[in-house]
Design goal:
The chain is mostly helical. α5 crosses α6, α6 packs antiparallel against α10 and α7 packs antiparallel against α9. β6 and β7 form a beta hairpin.
Length: 382
């Protein structure tokens, strides 16, 4: 058995598997209890009413899951339920609202108070910032969402912190790997040796087979970046601090748009020729197929976005739901079964973290390969 030779590897693997089970970063306190309750006329029909605090266990679990999936403007490690005191730290709020407005998220007091800055008043509602009057009223529209104006938000949120941490880690990791190649005549050393096989795998099993020997090098930097970027963010999402970056659709949209732009700008004439004037089909059909093929170029990155977002989001929901069953059963058998299932799912989540990074990178390489494919056949043989 492999672990028998190096027990430390087994211990580290067990600790990693247990990390999702001790996630405590996002608390059940929801910002939906925004300052609407302190307004003197909060009982008016046009204001958003204060939502009742969940009292039963099932409602608290649901509230916890919903809050965990949202981005956050602060880090909350724990909450004293008796005093309501939060333990954590705030993040900066950066808004553009008739000029630059910069202040700390602590002014919101976790969504319980109205924040005032330079004569402007803001409320935190479902982790979104709305502009209000001094009373903190939120006007509810027909669809149930507030109709108050929202300033342009450039705030440093929890997801932004996660992205910065992963970016810095990747920069120092692969900088040291590149330097070790130069010092040791092409032989990796240090921490980079762990990730060198993954770099070679992306090159030999993803880039070259799908793009080709001729063109793969110009895409390698991007493919390696998105592979390790998604992988490290997925792993970070399993850590106790509760980062849910790849479960944020804004992040997956940005990655998909990058793949679409690169494919569009680097594709050769054969790629566009097959889209707008497909060879080997009757001329009338070319006019019908052209818009369909053009739409397909947009659908492809859209599928990239949905696949990564849905898989990572579903994994968090299922894992936290199973952990929540421990508090519902309140029995030795039920809690033990839930714990065992959550542990097994945690192992599966680690596999999914690697799998989703691989799938996104592989499909991006496929699109790049299609954009650079050379066609030597005649239309008659298509």
């Amino acid at each position: 058995m492999v672990f028998s030779k190096k027990p430390l590897h087994f211990i580290v693997a067990i600790l990693i598997a247990f990390l999702p089970l001790i996630n405590f970063a996002n608390t059940t306190v929801d910002s939906t209890t925004a300052k609407t309750e302190i307004a003197p006329n909060a009982a008016e029909e046009t204001s958003v009413e204060k939502q009742a605090e969940p009292t039963d266990v099932k409602s608290k679990i649901k509230e916890f899951i919903n809050h965990h999936l949202l981005d956050a403007h602060d880090f909350t490690f724990s909450v004293n339920e008796e005093t309501g005191e939060h333990y954590g730290f705030s993040l900066p709020i950066i808004l553009w609202d008739n000029g630059l407005q910069v202040f700390s998220s602590s002014k919101f007091h976790h969504g319980e108070e109205v924040a005032e800055q330079n004569g402007n008043y803001y409320v935190l509602h479902h982790e979104k910032i709305y502009k209000t009057a001094a009373s903190g009223e939120l006007t509810e529209g027909e669809n149930g969402f507030p109709t108050n104006s929202r300033p342009i938000d450039f705030s440093i949120t929890k997801s932004v912190i996660g992205i910065l941490l992963v970016s810095l880690f990747m920069f120092f990791l692969f900088t040291s790997l590149a330097k070790s190649y130069a010092k040791n005549n092409g032989i990796a050393s240090g921490l980079g040796r762990i990730f060198e096989p993954l770099v070679l795998y992306v090159r030999d099993e993803i880039a070259i087979p799908n793009i080709g020997e001729k063109n793969y090098k110009k895409y390698m930097s991007y493919l390696l970046t998105i592979f390790f970027f998604i992988l490290f963010l997925n792993i970070l999402g399993l850590m106790p601090l509760g980062f849910n970056v790849t479960g944020n659709i804004a992040i997956t949209v940005s990655l998909a748009i990058l793949t679409y732009i690169i494919t569009t700008l680097t594709a050769n004439k054969n790629y566009w020729g097959h889209i707008f004037w497909m060879p080997g089909v009757p001329t009338p059909m070319k006019f019908i197929l052209a818009p369909i093929e053009l739409l397909g170029t947009i659908i492809k990155p859209f599928s990239l976005m949905i696949r990564l977002y849905a898989n990572m989001l579903a994994g968090h929901v299922v894992l936290m739901s199973i952990i929540g069953l421990m508090f519902i059963f309140k029995s030795w058998i039920g809690s033990t079964l839930s714990f065992g299932l959550a542990f097994a799912l945690s192992i599966l989540e680690i596999l999914v973290a690697f799998l989703q990074a691989y799938i996104f990178t592989m499909l991006s390489a496929l699109y790049f390969g299609a954009g650079n494919e050379e066609h030597h056949h005649d239309e008659a043989h298509h």
